[in-house]
Write a structure and sequence with these properties.
Strand content: 5-15%
Distance between the termini: 10 Å
Number of domains: 1
Shape: globular
Largest sheet: 2 strands, parallel
Length: 50
């Protein structure tokens, strides 16, 4: 799944309220709301491989 597909697959309430923690992949910046997107290192434990 690409970043856009991930964003589109989330329930509406999550898209409106969630804070997204991702690695530094540029694609996330293109599809996730800037005010709720945080780029963090994988060593933080805030990102997950699904």
């Amino acid at each position: 799944m690409d970043a856009k597909g991930l964003s589109d697959s989330l329930p509406v309430v999550d898209r409106q309220c969630a804070v997204y923690y991702t690695d530094f992949l540029v694609a996330y910046k293109k599809v996730l709301p800037r005010q709720r997107h945080k780029s963090v290192g994988k060593d933080t434990g805030k990102t997950s491989d699904l």
